[in-house]
């Protein structure tokens, strides 16, 4: 273009081609998405053929092939709704793997319902499906990990061609991302000046994503300009960071800022609840003799009720009564929870010392889980008067309340990392809080399973007293 040629010739701005071009990146990304979709089909097909081989001695038994033929189209129909083949793959491939596995489990369930409904017309092997499902899940994770490892170097470490425009506001630009100072290169958001818009186009040409840092009074002008630039335009707004903005929305024709969302969507809440109920019922079935024996021992050891109830704050900041086996003398029980338990605490009974050291005192919380006030895995609920040093927990860090967006758990990420016991100093709470928030932000059902499995290794802990 005339203005672009004049502008570049004058040495005012680097050539547009100096910004990593978008065309080849788009083509590579499309190839990667196609490879992901094809890889899913190949992985699931191989897994089900292997399952058929294990079950029938041949990979081409009609019952096994029918299972695959019915399930695979259903999988793709569900998977495309969850968008596992999108740009999110580059930033969080594990999340897309989780979405793919969720689609797989749903597809298997739907296929089973279909098979049950028209059993006379379709022959699906009930043994091939679970074996194939497990092998498919492993294969889906493996193919995504492999493709992600190959894809990022092909895209130069940056899947989307990005340029940062700096217009009088500070911003930290990551290494490898190109930036331009608009003042140095004479770039401005002037919708009334075609020459200015042309210069801006020359500067950002080839970019797919433009990130802008500017003072608040110039954001509207830049927003108008970027909307016509055929790019993903973003304006950095530090004031929104202060309130933890999640995304933009609207209400009554007015723009609004979303500051909170439930950490789990409906499907994942159902999945987590099913996991909680299944584990709770299995635990009761296995350990009821232990529960009965401990209850009898508590009654014989000291007068008072078997169970100890204490108000705790649960999901949505709602109070509930947590259940524990009573481990202290009835006249010394700390309902408010403002006194941390110490090693060799004189309030603890003989039986109480044993059940606290082995974490058996927490087992009645299975009833809390069945009631729906707690989960098997989640942030541990704290007593209202709990102190970190001489400060109430919520006085230590304003992010403390974030952990109440999910149900509290019997065990959690903080506990398996060793962050349990007395909170003598604020740092003790901060360690737990970081673990709790990390758990919430990265929740998957597999993470719950891993945490539950790891809990068996920390039941006997030096801070359990």
UniProtKB/TrEMBL annotation:
This is Bacterial sugar transferase domain-containing protein. Keywords: Exopolysaccharide synthesis, Membrane, Transmembrane, Transmembrane helix. It comes from Sphingomonas glacialis. The chain crosses the membrane at residues 30-56, 62-80, 101-122, 128-147, 277-298. GO terms for biological process: polysaccharide biosynthetic process. Residues 272-460 form the Bacterial sugar transferase domain. It holds the Pfam family Bac_transf. PANTHER family: COLANIC BIOSYNTHESIS UDP-GLUCOSE LIPID CARRIER TRANSFERASE, UNDECAPRENYL-PHOSPHATE N-ACETYLGALACTOSAMINYL 1-PHOSPHATE TRANSFERASE-RELATED. GO terms for molecular function: phosphotransferase activity, for other substituted phosphate groups. Belongs to the bacterial sugar transferase family.
């Amino acid at each position: 273009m005339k203005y672009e040629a004049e502008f570049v010739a004058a040495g005012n701005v680097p050539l547009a081609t100096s910004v990593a071009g978008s065309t080849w990146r788009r083509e590579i990304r499309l190839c990667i998405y196609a490879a992901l979709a094809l890889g899913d089909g190949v992985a699931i097909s191989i897994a089900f053929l292997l399952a058929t081989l294990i079950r029938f001695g041949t990979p081409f038994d009609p019952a096994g092939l029918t299972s695959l033929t019915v399930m695979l189209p259903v999988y793709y129909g569900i998977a495309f709704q969850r968008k596992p083949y999108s740009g999110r793959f580059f930033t969080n491939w594990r999340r897309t793997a989780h979405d793919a596995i969720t689609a797989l489990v749903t597809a298997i369930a739907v296929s089973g319902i279909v098979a049950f409904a028209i059993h006379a017309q379709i022959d699906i092997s009930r043994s091939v499906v679970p074996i194939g499902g497990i092998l498919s899940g492993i294969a889906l994770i493996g193919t995504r990990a492999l493709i992600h490892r190959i894809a990022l170097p092909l895209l130069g470490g940056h899947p989307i061609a990005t340029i940062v425009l700096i217009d009088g506001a500070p911003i930290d630009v990551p290494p490898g991302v190109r930036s331009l100072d608009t003042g140095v290169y004479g770039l401005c958001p002037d919708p009334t000046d075609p020459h200015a818009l042309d210069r801006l186009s020359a500067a950002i040409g080839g970019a797919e994503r433009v990130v802008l840092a500017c003072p608040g009074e110039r954001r509207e002008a830049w927003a108008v300009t970027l909307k016509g630039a055929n790019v993903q335009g973003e304006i950095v707004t530090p004031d929104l960071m202060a309130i933890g903005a999640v995304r933009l929305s609207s209400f009554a024709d007015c723009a609004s800022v979303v500051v909170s969302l439930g950490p789990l969507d409906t499907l994942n809440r159902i999945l987590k609840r099913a996991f909680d109920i299944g584990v709770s019922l299995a635990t009761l079935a296995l350990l009821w003799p232990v529960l009965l024996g401990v209850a009898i021992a508590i009654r014989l050891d000291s007068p008072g009720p078997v169970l100890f109830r204490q108000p705790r704050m649960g999901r949505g900041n709602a109070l509930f009564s947590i259940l524990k086996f009573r481990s202290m003398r009835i006249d010394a029980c700390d309902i408010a929870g403002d006194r941390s338990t110490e090693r060799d605490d004189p309030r603890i009974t003989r039986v109480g010392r044993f059940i606290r050291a082995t974490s058996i005192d927490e087992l009645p919380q299975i009833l809390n889980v069945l009631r729906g006030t707690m989960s098997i895995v989640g942030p541990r609920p704290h007593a209202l008067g709990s102190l970190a040093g001489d400060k109430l927990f919520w006085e230590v860090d304003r992010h403390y309340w974030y952990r109440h967006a999910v149900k509290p758990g019997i065990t959690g990420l903080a506990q398996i990392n060793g962050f349990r016991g007395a909170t003598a100093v604020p740092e003790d709470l901060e360690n737990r809080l970081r673990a709790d928030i990390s758990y919430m932000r990265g929740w998957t059902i597999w993470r719950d399973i891993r945490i539950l499995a790891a809990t068996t290794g920390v039941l006997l802990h030096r801070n359990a007293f």
